[in-house]
Structure formats: C-alpha cells, structure tokens
Specification:
- By secondary structure, the protein is mostly helical.
- 50% of the residues lie in helices and 3% in strands.
- The chain has four helices and two strands.
- The chain has helices spanning 5-35, 75-83, 85-88, 101-113; strands at 66-67, 71-72.
- Strands 1-2 form a two-stranded antiparallel sheet.
- Strand 1 and strand 2 (71-72) form a beta hairpin.
- The longest helix has 31 residues, at 5-35.
- The protein is elongated, with a radius of gyration of 17 Å.
- It starts with a helix and ends with a helix.
C-alpha cells in the first residue's frame, strides 16, 4: 500500500525531532553530572572536574550489563538508581542527591552513551 508523501514527510520530521530531543537530553545530562558533582566520587569521561576515585569509574558505562553489580543496566532502572539509589539497593554507599526524575533521565541518557 503506497504511503502518502505528506505522511512520509511527517514521519521523517517526527523521527528527526526524536534524535534532537535525545541529543539535547544527553548534553543536559552531562551538565547535570557536573552540577550535582558526581565527579567528586566518580571519574566520568567528558565531564569537567570529574576525576573522583572514591567510587567506580563510569567510563564505558553504557556497555555494562549491570548497575551496582546487580541491577539490569536499562534507561528506566538507571534513572531510578540516580534518583533514589537506596530504594533499589538499601546498603549502597551512593547517596541520594535530590535529583528530580527528569534530571535523572537526562543523566542516565548521558551515561548510557558512554560505550
């Protein structure tokens, strides 16, 4: 069944916009990782002054299978981990930093790009 050219153009615009939203979210996530000073504990590629050695390096984080060694490394789980780590792993040393759900999603988007 042929697709109307206007429908094809609209679909292309939607797909392009999704890429821009994702790119903006990734950039915002990088800024937020610096703002919340995550680099005080973690070494995070691409984030200024993020050379911490107290916690694990986040280099290649997007290629990891697990968060904190036990949670599946998926965008929704990572955002929840950033927002409320003790709710997912009660004995974790990672502190809750008061990150909003929207900010946690952006931070997760950046970390998942680190391959």
């Amino acid at each position: 069944m042929p697709v109307h050219p206007l429908c094809r153009a609209a679909l292309a615009a939607i797909v392009a916009a999704c890429g821009c939203v994702h790119a903006a979210s990734v950039g915002r996530g990088r800024q937020l990782l610096a703002q919340y000073q995550c680099g005080s504990c973690h070494s995070i590629p691409g984030v200024a002054s993020a050379g911490g050695r107290v916690a694990s390096s986040l280099k290649g984080f997007g290629a990891r299978s697990y968060i904190a060694g036990r949670l599946a490394n998926r965008p929704d789980t990572l955002a929840r981990w950033i927002e409320q780590p003790q709710a997912l792993v009660p004995d974790t040393l990672m502190p809750a930093m008061g990150v909003s759900p929207a900010d946690a999603r952006a931070m997760a988007a950046y970390l998942l790009e680190l391959k």
